Amino acid sequence: MKLFDSHCHLDDRIYDKDFKDVLSRAKNAGVSGIMIVGVDKKSSERAVTLAESKPGLYASVGFHPHDAKECSKEALQFLIKLAKSPKVKAWGEIGLGKIRKDGLSASLRPQTNSIFRLFSMKGRVTEVFWRF
Hints:
The protein has a single domain, classed as Metal-dependent hydrolases (TIM Barrel), CATH 3.20.20. By secondary structure, the protein is an alpha/beta fold. The model has no long low-confidence stretch (mean pLDDT 81). Strand 3 (57-61), helix 3 and strand 4 form a beta-alpha-beta unit. The longest helix has 13 residues, at 41-53. The chain has a five-stranded parallel beta sheet. It contains five helices and five strands; from the N terminus they run βαβαβαβααβ. The chain has helices at 19-28, 41-53, 73-82, 104-107, 109-120, and strands spanning 3-8, 31-37, 57-61, 88-96, 125-130.
């Protein structure tokens, strides 16, 4: 049986020291592919760079719901440029987090809706972050 890890954050600097070991353990466990999920501009760019460095690694690009306020038109254009890489297979991490006491997640709904519309037109899978 082949396994595919559809959501991981290997872009996190915590993996810098043992990145190759993590990939080796995944392979030994039967994982044939790994999706590295971007949660902002910086992590999306790093996800693409890592995905382009090794076979079996793929990237998604997007903004975590709690960072959606950073998702300007310029930031979306940056993600669209990143998504031209053949290693980018999905949009995300996007969506709405659990409604917080400060109401932030609810206030981000317009940005999230814009992101969904844009990304759905670009022919990629969308990885949705949703908490209840």
